[in-house]
Amino acid sequence: MNADELSRGQLEELDVDLVELGQLLHQGDEELRQALLGLEEDDRALYRVKAMMEDRRGEVDIFDELGLHGNELFHSKMLAWLLNPRGSHGLGDRFLQEFLKLFHGRPPISAADRPATSVAREVHLNYEGESGRLDILIRNSRANYVCAIENKVWSPEGENQLAWYRKVLGRDYADYRVDLVFLTREGLSPEDDQEHPHWITMSYSKILQLVEGFLDSESNTENRDVRAVLNQYAVTLRRNIVPDVSNDIHELAKRIYRKHRRAIDLIMENVDQYRPDYVGEGYRMIQEAIRQHPLWNLGRCDRPYVRFRSADWVAYEELSLDGWPFFLLLFEVRVTYNGVSLYLSLCQGGDDSLRRRIYDRVRERGDLFNGAASAYSDQYLKLHEEGDILEESEYEDWWDEEGIRDRIGSRLDAFAPGDVSQDKRGHPECP
């Protein structure tokens, strides 16, 4: 076989391989396309997630507003109140029993002994010349039982702190059954490996589950005021302490992901390509909105500016200019990553006396116009300015291009009326 035949044979084999590769790629593309279509068609579940998230965003978080959500002492007070069988919450010892069940299949305090339970906060301890304050101590002398809770929301664990607490409690309650609970946002273990066997680690997601469990049952919280407090505490825990907790939203999202894993993985792998181009897309949508409006004439656009004028202004020849921008008054929309701003501008050129007349008239009407230049000049002058015409929340809905375009159009419509009045001498002037 000569070199030409060898090369031809290799090419034929390569051609076969390329055909097979093409078939595999086509098959893969079709499978991905079907996966994406399946995700798109499952709109009921997707809209439900969106609605649930909007409901959560609309929740009032009074503890956040008061600056309490990050206060470790606040959470200790709240938890001690709920655990106290004689607390004003009216829950009796039900919250305490549910709490103890988290690490005991059978609560260590019998029904007959429960009245003897006390809950103390900021318990002062002394040992070998050192002192400390334990966050919460649950004690029942009849059952010879103690539960000590060290609460760490944001602050780090102190050096040898847990070992010291364990020694003190072991001395003071030598005849008691002692449970040591290390409560943190994430359910962290003690930093000292030697303390791991002695402490029960607990996350705030467990506390949230307890609170929500009582909210789910009307019989558990008959007092409306107590129920309102529990609901507010659940809100602040979800938002600020355990935002990744597996609640109803996450459970639904998990089911959607398992059902549409391939499509969602593809989206996440290419998410940077799908992020909104607020400037480019906004610039295009504004031009489309202006073209679709019967009373506006689109002018020359130089990114980031989109310019237009009222179609009614054509009747006023005095406003016309021989060269760019061909008209003395222009509406301008400036699109940047900081937002979409609107202006009414007085352009260069034309009759200077008319320009001055318009400028003076605008300055007189401060009730209608804002942002007018402080001094007259023959340069471009801003007569009126509107800040960002979209709300911050609307940028989150940028995926709804038609809806965003309509909202931009309505804001432009409200800003740029199409009428120009004339004074007695026939000259146009601003309304």
Folded structure, characterized:
- This protein is α+β, with helices and mostly antiparallel strands and 431 residues long.
- Helices cover 45% and strands 18% of the residues.
- A 5-stranded mixed beta sheet has the order 1-2-3-4-5. A 5-stranded antiparallel beta sheet has the order 6-7-8-9-10.
- Helix 2 packs antiparallel against helix 9.
- It is elongated, with a radius of gyration of 35 Å.
- The C terminus is likely disordered.
Number of helices: 15
Shape estimate: elongated
- Kindly report the average pLDDT value: 79
Trace the largest sheet across and list its strands: 1-2-3-4-5
Mind sketching the topology for me?
Layout: H1 3-41, H2 43-57, H3 62-65, H4 72-83, H5 94-101, E1 117-127, E2 130-140, E3 145-152, H6 161-172, E4 177-184, E5 200-203, H7 204-216, H8 224-241, H9 248-259, H10 261-269, H11 271-274, H12 278-292, E6 296-298, E7 305-310, E8 329-336, E9 339-346, H13 352-364, E10 381-386, H14 392-395, H15 401-415, E11 421-422, E12 428-429
Parallel strand pairs: 3-4, 4-5
Antiparallel strand pairs: 1-2, 2-3, 6-7, 7-8, 8-9, 9-10, 11-12
